[in-house]
Write a sequence for this structure.
């Protein structure tokens, strides 16, 4: 997928991840991401709304964004699933560490502190992008 309009997949820090409720309502969230081998990965909690929505229907829209989720480009349709392959999870975890470095480590420490009070299971969502354009909402 070598398109100059998609360079942000290699260089961007945030995406607007839009997932869809059962009633079709769009829910947008700014998230960190990693692009690797034509797949996009997002780190989240198993119990998060976005993970639940992806498990329910897999439909998503993805666009480059700023830290607040304001889109900086066109939305791209995607199909997602929860990543379950243990070796791939280790690899993606390393890629997130490489990309986000100390920021990720600090957030991980805060999450570990919260987990000590109420355990949460983290997961990665894996997306395959389509080059068709679609709008959020």
């Amino acid at each position: 997928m070598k398109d100059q309009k998609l360079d942000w997949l290699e260089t961007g820090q945030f995406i607007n991840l839009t997932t869809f409720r059962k009633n079709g309502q769009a829910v947008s969230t700014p998230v960190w991401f990693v692009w690797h081998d034509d797949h996009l990965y997002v780190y989240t909690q198993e119990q998060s709304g976005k993970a639940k929505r992806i498990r329910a229907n897999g439909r998503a829209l993805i666009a480059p964004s700023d830290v607040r989720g304001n889109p900086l480009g066109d939305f791209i349709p995607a199909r997602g699933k929860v990543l379950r392959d243990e070796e791939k999870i280790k690899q993606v975890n390393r890629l997130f560490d490489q990309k986000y470095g100390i920021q990720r480590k600090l957030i991980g420490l805060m999450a570990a502190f919260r987990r000590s009070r109420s355990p949460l299971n983290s997961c990665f969502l894996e997306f395959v992008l389509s080059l068709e354009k679609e709008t959020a909402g």
Observations:
- The beta strands are 14-20, 26-32, 34-36, 39-45, 59-65, 76-82, 122-129.
- The chain has one domain: 4-129.
